[in-house]
């Protein structure tokens, strides 16, 4: 009976795991297959003649390393900015209850549900007026426009679970709101902040539309934009280099989730860890 119960649980999970890993496996196979095998192979799920020509060609004949550095800079900077602003905003809405806080909370939720594709035209007008077009650092505040609403919404739910007694005790001891924010609330809110940071980093790393519209020079492109604009020429797809770029490009997000998955789950569930 116990064996049947285990099969009912683990067999579907095994099929689901294989289904999720198939795209990653296909990227690996395509990355290390010789060009001839990509066009004609008796077994698409096996590598008969492994090669690094696609990886070497990607790193030496394209500006992939520059695109990777650009993406890393924009993702880290926009994550830091968005989490910082969201943390302060969420605390102000939950604890300070300033005049109009309910309106601000509703506006943040509405901003979160607005698709980014609708905003890129008005944002383009602002960027042109500010002379920010084709400047890599301009993507940082641009990405914050869609990262801050979600992170604020996430942190509002997380901060609600922090007992008020901690803040009241600190105020009795003469602590200011700023001291409470950074010395009392911040250490407890670390799981929620890490969860928001992981979400922000992943979304920034995979963002395509804004980077495509606002960046034109090859030196300012991100990985997603550079690969689709530089490695696809007409109807010719450089599949080996495309898959090599995709394989390298997913590593930062995979590492972030691997090392911080416990905090991510805790933050998303709104729990507070001791």
From TrEMBL:
PANTHER family: INNER MEMBRANE ABC TRANSPORTER PERMEASE PROTEIN YCJP, MALTOSE TRANSPORT SYSTEM PERMEASE-RELATED. GO terms for cellular component: plasma membrane. Keywords: Cell membrane, Membrane, Transmembrane, Transmembrane helix, Transport. It comes from Vulcanimicrobium alpinum. Pfam families: BPD_transp_1. GO terms for biological process: transmembrane transport. This is ABC transporter permease. It comes from the Bacteria. The chain crosses the membrane at residues 9-29, 67-94, 106-130, 136-159, 180-205, 242-265. It is a multi-pass membrane protein. Belongs to the binding-protein-dependent transport system permease family. It is found in: Cell membrane. Residues 68-260 form the ABC transmembrane type-1 domain.
């Amino acid at each position: 009976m116990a064996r049947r119960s285990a099969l009912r649980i683990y067999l579907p999970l095994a099929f689901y795991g294989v289904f999720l890993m198939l795209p990653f496996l296909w990227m690996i196979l395509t990355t290390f297959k010789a060009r001839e095998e990509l066009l004609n192979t008796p077994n698409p799920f096996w590598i008969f003649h492994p090669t690094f020509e696609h990886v070497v060609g990607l790193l030496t004949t394209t500006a992939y390393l520059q695109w990777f550095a650009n993406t890393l800079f924009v993702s880290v900077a926009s994550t830091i900015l968005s989490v910082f602003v969201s943390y302060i905003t969420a605390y102000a809405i939950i604890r300070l209850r300033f005049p109009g806080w309910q309106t601000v909370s509703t506006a943040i939720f509405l901003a979160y549900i607005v698709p980014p594709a609708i905003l890129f035209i008005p944002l383009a007008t602002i960027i042109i007026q500010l002379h920010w077009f084709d400047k890599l650092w301009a993507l940082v505040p641009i990405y914050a426009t869609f990262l801050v609403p979600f992170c604020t919404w996430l942190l509002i739910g997380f901060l609600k679970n922090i007992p008020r007694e901690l803040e009241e005790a600190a105020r009795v001891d003469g602590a200011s709101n700023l001291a409470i924010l950074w010395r009392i609330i911040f250490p407890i809110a670390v799981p929620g902040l890490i969860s928001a940071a992981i979400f922000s980093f992943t979304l920034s790393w995979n963002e395509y539309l804004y980077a495509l519209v606002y960046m034109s020079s090859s030196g300012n492109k991100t990985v997603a934009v550079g690969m689709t604009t530089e490695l696809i020429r007409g109807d010719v797809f450089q599949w080996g280099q495309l898959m090599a770029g995709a394989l390298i490009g997913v590593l930062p997000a995979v590492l972030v989730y691997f090392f911080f998955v416990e905090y991510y789950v805790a933050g998303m569930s709104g729990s507070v860890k001791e």
